[in-house]
Structures are given as structure tokens and as C-alpha cells.
Amino acid sequence: MSGAKSFAGASAAVPASTPLLDIQDVSKGFTLHAAGRRVSGCEHISMRVGHGEFVGVTGRSGSGKSTILKCIYRTNLPESGKILYDSAAFGVVDLATLDERRMIYLRNNEIGYISQFLDCVPRTTARQIVRASASEAFEDEEAIESETTRMLEHFDFPKNLWDLYPNTFSGGEKLRLNIARAMVRRPRFLLLDEPTDSLDNASKAKVRELIEQLKASGTTMLGIFHDLEFMEGVCDREYNMQAGGFVAGSSVAE
């Protein structure tokens, strides 16, 4: 990883007994004020993810899978429980209570998130979007340009699209761009929220190839999927969710 910034490294020395992520009894619900209802997102979730593992979470839509990822990334603030993360910068921290300054640092430098939807600055081209992420992981201009080009080519973006705005892209092209933006940073810990949901088989294969490369380099991943065939042979362990909790018999014990 020539030219990579030191904080982006995925192979920091840590005790083997310390998991990268340790979720302890986390619950999150939502109040629908207009309807006067309360909806449960996830309840009493506990799980551990070891350094370098790829753990998958499966389940039907509405079972609470995305809620867990958003609590880890702190898009949602957990209502109870702990989310212990063994960070390279600060040591073990509780993401559920971490101050915003350090949480923003971890999002920028250690924890990546791939969602189904592309969220970017308006009037920013595809090349600029990927390049901005590459510049967060690499120091010299040659490495930034090389990695930007590599990712756009890997996901088969024709060169005539590189300098266009993504609002002109199809849903699948936007998703591929979102994945390219997240993966070019080679994050220490990567969250994947159904990243292949609207992709064709060829694009899924491209995503799988990069996931395998990231895993080989030491990146830890936690992903939620509907596509069980895609996960086969990639995930080390699988959890299954129903109605906000893990199903008995899924891989919840360490």
C-alpha cells in the first residue's frame, strides 16, 4: 500500500483475545409520533467480531439488520447496551457513548460504510467522488490517481462517465460508485448494508473480488445480505435475524 496514510492500516498489532467489535445487549427502537406508535428496531443484540473476520447477518426485510449497522456507525444512537470497538487510534471505545469528535475521526479514518444509496455532494463527478476517498487513504498524488483509476476501471465505468454527475446514472451504477468510494479507502473495519442488492451477476462478482482482497489484507467486515449464495465461502460466520433478534442456533456464541 505505497503512499498509504498510517491511520488507514488494517494490520495494527492487537491482542488476539481482544475482538475488534464486541456488541453487548444493544437495543434500539423508534417512536412514530404521527401514528402514536413505537417500533422495535433491534432488541438485546450481543455479538463479537474478531480482527480480520467477515461476519454476515441475514434475515427478511424489516428484521432489524440495518438498525445494528447504523447503531455501530452511530447514524442511530443505541438506547441501551454497549458497542465496544478496538480502535487503532484510541484503543477500546464504546461507540454508543463516544464523543462526536472521536466518532467523526473513526468514520473518516477507520470505519467504512457501504449502503444501498449514494449520498454525495451535488455537482461532484464520479471521478471526484472516488478521488476524494482515495485522498483520505493515500498521501502522494500518484497513488491517489492510480487508486482512483483502478477502482473506476474495476467496476467497469466507461471513461465517458468518469466526469459526469452521478444523478445521471442508473441505480446500479450509483451503487457501484458507492462501493468504489468506500473500498478505495481500504478501511480497517467495513460495514456493508446489502451492497449487492440491485447489482447484476457480473457486478456482484466484482464486489466479491474486492471483498476477498480486503479480507486478505486484514480488513474486518460486518455485512448484511439477502443473497446467501454471494456470501457462501466469503463469510466466516453467519447470524440470522427475525423480529429484531437473533434466531436460536445462529452463530451468536464465540
Describe the structure.
This protein has 254 residues and is an alpha/beta fold. The chain has one domain: 3-Layer(aba) Sandwich (Rossmann fold), CATH 3.40.50.300. 31% of the residues lie in helices and 26% in strands. It has a six-stranded mixed sheet, sandwiched between helices. Strand 1 (21-32) and strand 2 form a beta hairpin. It starts with 20 loop residues before the first strand and ends in an 8-residue tail after the last strand.
Summarize the structure.
The protein is of the alpha/beta class and 254 residues long. The protein has seven helices and ten strands. The strands form two sheets. A six-stranded mixed β-sheet has the order 6-7-8-3-9-10, sandwiched between helices.
Question: Which tags fit this structure?
Answer:
254 residues; alpha/beta; 26% strand; Rossmann fold; 7 helices
Helix-strand blueprint:
Layout: E1 21-32, E2 37-49, E3 54-59, H1 65-73, E4 80-87, E5 91-94, H2 100-109, E6 111-114, H3 126-137, H4 141-154, H5 171-183, E7 189-193, H6 201-217, E8 220-225, H7 228-231, E9 237-242, E10 245-246
Parallel strand pairs: 3-8, 3-9, 6-7, 7-8
Antiparallel strand pairs: 1-2, 1-4, 4-5, 9-10
Indicate the low-confidence ranges by residue numbers: 1-15
The count of β-strands is: 10
Please indicate the count of domains: 1
The top level CATH class name: Alpha Beta
Major beta sheet summary: 6 strands, mixed
Per CATH, the architecture is 3-Layer(aba) Sandwich
The general outline is globular
User: Secondary-structure element order, as H and E?
Assistant: EEEHEEHEHHHEHEHEE
Structural class: alpha/beta
Distance between the termini: 32 Å
* Rg over CA atoms: 18 Å
User: Given the structure, what is the number of helices?
Assistant: 7
The largest beta-sheet arranges its strands as 6-7-8-3-9-10
Task: Give average pLDDT, whole number.
Answer: 83
How much β-strand is present in the residues?
25-35%
Question: At the third CATH level, what is the topology name?
Answer: Rossmann fold
CATH superfamily: P-loop containing nucleotide triphosphate hydrolases
